[in-house]
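Changelog-linked ticket: magnesium ion example.
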Amino acid sequence: MICVCAQQKGGVGKTTSAINVAVLLAQAGRRVLAVDVDPQFALTRRLGIELNALKATVVDVLAGWVDPDEPIVSDVYGIDVMPATRELAGVELALAGEVGRESVLRAALDSLDYDAIVIDTPSNLGLLTVNALVAADVVVAPVAADDEGAAQGVAELRGTIAKLGRLRQPLPDL
Ligand SMILES: Nc1ncnc2c1ncn2[C@@H]1O[C@H](COP(=O)(O)OP(=O)(O)OP(=O)(O)O)[C@@H](O)[C@H]1O
Ligand SMILES: [Mg+2]
């Protein structure tokens, strides 16, 4: 099961939800991977992952430089983590010119074996968020009850998910 926390509006609780969902699933006995695809890498930072110590990150996976299991940091509060750095912004630009640019993350995660993968996304509907949505089985979009902007964000998110429907077809065997 792949669960994506997404919302165009910023500061609504995407990263907080992603960490909570991931850690709670792990506490319930599931094998969980949290993937950070936000160039602000708040999930990576909040889990206390030291960027200097990393040989690879999700940046290298999306660029096709390493296998998807290489950047995974094991057992952080009971979950595995695929961390991000700010270089993700550059990868998003580079991906824009690629064929199959919306499905790169989905194809990479397909080779990993977890009960649940939870993905944190940036506050826009750009190519990184689209890659997460194409991989998603479940989308969590946090909205405060009195936040009209966040409610509007959900409407736009639903429109994007509807448009991406055709990309959710099974991956062809190559
Ligand atoms: N359920 C909640 N109730 C109150 N405050 C919350 C809740 N969830 C998150 N917050 C607070 O709101 C702020 C923004 O949360 P968070 O970073 O998770 O949002 P975000 O949507 O990921 O932001 P960004 O768009 O910058 O990625 C944080 O200070 C967080 O502690
Ligand atoms: Mg965030």
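Closing comment: Example verified and attached. The first strand starts at residue 2 and ends at 5. The radius of gyration is 15 Å.
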